[in-house]
Amino acid sequence: MPQLNPSPWFFIMLISWLAFSLVMQPKLLSFMSTNPPSNKATHITKTPSWNWPWT
């Protein structure tokens, strides 16, 4: 069964991970968000409970 031979598949997996980590990952990490999050105070609003007619 040729699919049990790991030698070509391991090399393909190794090359793809090296390509991802050395080429694509720095390009993806170079993007910065244009609007950094600001430190806003969280305002918690209390919503009134509903008056159910059948209770």
Question: Can you offer a commentary on this structure?
Answer:
- This protein is an all-alpha fold and 55 residues long.
- The protein has one helix at residues 6-29.
- It has one helix and no strands.
- It is elongated and about 70 Å long.
Features:
single chain, 55 residues, mainly alpha, 1 helix, 44% helix, 0% strand, membrane, mitochondrion, hydrogen ion transport, proton transmembrane transporter activity
How would you concisely characterize the structure shown here?
The protein is mainly α and 55 residues long.
Strand content: under 5%
Ends distance:
69 Å
Low-confidence segments: none
Radius of gyration of CA atoms, rounded to a whole number? 27 Å
Shape: elongated
What structural class results from the helix and strand content? Answer: mainly alpha
Helix count equals 1
Main sheet?
none
Helix content bin: 40-55%
How many DSSP-defined strands? 0
Order of helices and strands: H
Mean pLDDT: 78
